[in-house]
Amino acid sequence: MVYKTSEQRYDTMVYNRCGKSGLKLPAISLGLWHNFGGVDTIENGRAILHKAFDSGITHFDLANNYGPPPGSAEEMFGKIFKQDLAPYRDEMIISTKAGYTMWDGPYGDWGSKKYMVASLDQSLKRMGLDYVDIYYSHRFDPETPLEETMEALHLIKQQGKALYVGISNYRPDQTNNALKILKQLGTHCLIHQAQYSMFERWVENGLLDVLDNEGVGLIAFSPLAQGLLTKRYLDGIPADSRAAKPQTFLDKEDVTAERLKQVRALNDIAGERGQSLAQMALAWLLKDTRVTSVLIGASSVAQLEDNLKTLNSPKFTGEELNRIETILAG
Ligand SMILES: NC(=O)c1ccc[n+]([C@@H]2O[C@H](COP(=O)([O-])OP(=O)(O)OC[C@H]3O[C@@H](n4cnc5c(N)ncnc54)[C@H](OP(=O)(O)O)[C@@H]3O)[C@@H](O)[C@H]2O)c1
């Protein structure tokens, strides 16, 4: 059957300007780190992508190594894109990255120009795209001169293989240096992709200020702490959950009694606000206007639907915010 998107797709989504740029991103973006690999079913991936695009999610985030196995998320995305989404290419913001281990030998990891350029060529092939909208350096490389990694991003932008460039997981000082080098080259850094959730708040110690001063957007990854900030683990660890699966970065041991105590207390506040915990956790991030978008993952259409309702969140009262801080400090 030929996919046709919803005519109402732009009716409810909010779009935020990404730093000082011409680009707006949806308040909620979709990441394909998990659930789109060779170990997953394409029909579920397709249903999630359709639901996302039909709901105004225009931004889809990938990386060379997403799967497992590495590369397979780009391949699955490429198949679905070709079959269903290609007519809508100009309505989509597709990003990918390089920085983690991808292939054997000295040129398949970190931040050399050799790796950054070759990896994007491979990603474009896997996804069947002529260009990506955003290309990231996935992590800071302590051994490669930062000038070289930034020059690679600049070159790729000049070649038209990426329209914008970004960095991910760079600390505030590394970010400052990267932005300076890019500026000297004549390339603006569009965006920083960093882990940010109620349970992981390192960006509040300097990074958000650097980005705000320099007109760079922030997209918050793992905003639900990989599922901890939802009702997923309230009654134990489901067999089909990320914590139960092999080859993930969430372990059963991460679902501790102390964490669950916090989650239950937060869940109570969410209930009083008339929303799910997932919605409250996302709304809590989006209340800061320096956060351009929250980059969620979803293993089902139902989860995505739950998360999309974040857009109807009531404003936080001072009292609610204080109660949340007390729980998070505990
Ligand atoms: N730049 C980087 O270094 C980096 C690193 C990590 C991630 N990222 C990006 O960020 C994206 C999102 O990361 P993430 O998947 O960790 O984000 P997340 O939104 O924190 O976690 C997503 C997981 O939470 C669960 N979930 C989501 N919504 C739910 C709901 N409403 N109710 C119950 N459970 C729900 C699902 O887990 P189950 O599978 O258990 O159902 C889902 O797979 C990635 O796809 C990637 O694009 C970037």
Account of the 3D structure:
The chain has 330 residues and is an alpha/beta fold. It has a single domain (15-233, 286-313), classed as TIM Barrel. It contains 10 helices and 10 strands. The protein has an 8-stranded parallel beta barrel, surrounded by 5 helices. The protein has a two-stranded antiparallel sheet with strand order 1-2. NADP nicotinamide-adenine-dinucleotide phosphate binds at residues 31-35, 61, 138, 168-169, 193, 221-227, 230-232, 241-242, 278, 295-299, 303, 306-307.
What are the main properties of this structure?
two-stranded antiparallel sheet, TIM Barrel, binds NADP nicotinamide-adenine-dinucleotide phosphate, globular, 37% helix, eight-stranded parallel barrel, 10 helices, alpha/beta, 330 residues
Oligomer: single chain
Ligand inventory reads: NADP nicotinamide-adenine-dinucleotide phosphate
Give the CATH H-level superfamily. Answer: NADP-dependent oxidoreductase domain
- The pLDDT mean sits at 98
Helix segment count? 10
Radius of gyration: 19 Å
CATH topology: TIM Barrel
- The CATH class label is Alpha Beta
Which class best fits the helix and strand makeup? alpha/beta
In total, the number of domains comes to 1
Q: Which CATH architecture is right?
A: Alpha-Beta Barrel
What does the overall shape look like? globular
Low-confidence stretches: none
Largest sheet: 8 strands, parallel, barrel
Q: Which strand order do you get reading across the main beta sheet?
A: 3-4-5-6-7-8-9-10
Distance between the termini: 52 Å
* Strand segment count: 10
